[in-house]
């Protein structure tokens, strides 16, 4: 095999590894933000439901 070929294959593999690592980090960050948004929405809905129900005197 050509030395240049092996050299560039190493660069390509490293770039792919870094890309996959970055995508994984973006996925985790997005998932955590999504969970926070869902929790906020659930709390808002509960507040609306509890606030709109008649309160006993």
Ends distance:
87 Å
Q: What class do helices, strands and sheet pairing give? A: mainly alpha
Q: Counting H and I runs of at least 4 residues, what is the number of helices?
A: 1
Outline the low-pLDDT stretches: none
What percentage of the residues does DSSP assign to strands (E)? under 5%
Round the Cα radius of gyration to an integer and report it.
25 Å
The arrangement of helices and strands along the chain is H
| Percent helix range | over 70%
- Give the overall pLDDT as a whole number: 87
Biggest sheet descriptor: none
Number of strands: 0
Q: Tell me, briefly, the overall form.
A: rod-shaped
Descriptive overview:
The protein has one helix and no strands. The chain has one helix spanning 3-52. It is rod-shaped, with a radius of gyration of 25 Å.
Distinctive features:
57 residues; mainly alpha; 1 helix; 0% strand
Draw up the topology in text.
Blueprint lengths: L2 H50 L5
Quick recap:
By secondary structure, the chain is mainly α. The protein has one helix at 3-52.
